[in-house]
Amino acid sequence: MNYILEILKSENKDDLVISSNKIIFSKRIKLDENSDLDNYPLVKQLFFLPFVKSVTLDKHLIIIEKLDFLDWSDVQGEVLEEITKNLNDGMSVFINSNLAVSIYAERTPNPKVMKFVANKKLVNNPHEFKSKTDASNCPLAEALFIHKFVSEVYIDFNFISISLELGFDWENHIMDIREFILSYIKDGNTVIEKKYDIEKKFDLISLDELDETSKEIAKLIDEQIKPAVS
């Protein structure tokens, strides 16, 4: 059953109160920009909106507190629509890092590209694949190219971005691809061959090895920039 959300009347003009037909979170919790949001993907996504001050989850409710430079009447429809889409695309409200792997879909500014985010690391380095031939060393990408609507695949750390071929749209494919990736990873299949994804380690460079310009930059960072931000 899909999530069905509606806006409830609020006594506080700064709060947008959204009610869901399904439980959002089992207990009441208030989160702000200083909270650790890594386990709260839905809330983390909301904080990309520049006017969000805090988000409270309380059983069937999502309460979003805004900053005072706009009115909810200007944006509440778009916010409600975005939350509904994210939930119905499989985005998790809460991820317990001790539980099994989970995948949620995250929309991007490009309507042809969908991002599928895992709650675990997938690769050490970024990898881009333009075709099935390019993906011969990455079994997961190779498997994704079996779907005729997949145009390109990009994998980095804990997410996979997939581009669609012309003539296709994500509304018909989000859940299928999400379930495909989830099953693939849960079954213990190889994401990419290890020899093509070696974790990079960087050695410290001595100042004596730098040219004069680089030495001046390093000196500027140590003497002016580092003290200013510490």
Characterization of this structure:
The chain is an alpha+beta fold and 230 residues long. It has two domains: 5-88, Ribosomal Protein S8, Chain: A, domain 1; 103-196, 2-Layer Sandwich (Ribosomal Protein S8, Chain: A, domain 1), CATH 3.30.1370. It contains five helices and ten strands, in the order E-E-E-H-E-E-H-E-E-E-H-E-E-H-H. It has helices at residues 41-46, 72-88, 139-144, 174-186, 212-229, and strands spanning 5-8, 15-20, 25-32, 52-59, 61-66, 103-107, 113-118, 127-129, 150-156, 159-164. The protein has a five-stranded antiparallel sheet with strand order 1-2-5-4-3, covered by helices on one side. Strands 6-7-10-9-8 form a five-stranded antiparallel sheet, with helices on one face. A hairpin with a 5-residue loop joins strand 6 and strand 7.
- The third-level CATH topology of the largest domain is Ribosomal Protein S8, Chain: A, domain 1
Structural class: alpha+beta
Q: Could you tell me the radius of gyration in angstroms?
A: 22 Å
Going by CATH, what is the homologous superfamily of the largest domain?
Answer: Scaffold protein Nfu/NifU, N-terminal domain
List how many beta strands DSSP finds: 10
Helical proportion, percent range: 25-40%
Task: Outline the biggest β-sheet.
Answer: 5 strands, antiparallel
| CATH architecture title of the largest domain | 2-Layer Sandwich
CATH class of the largest domain: Alpha Beta
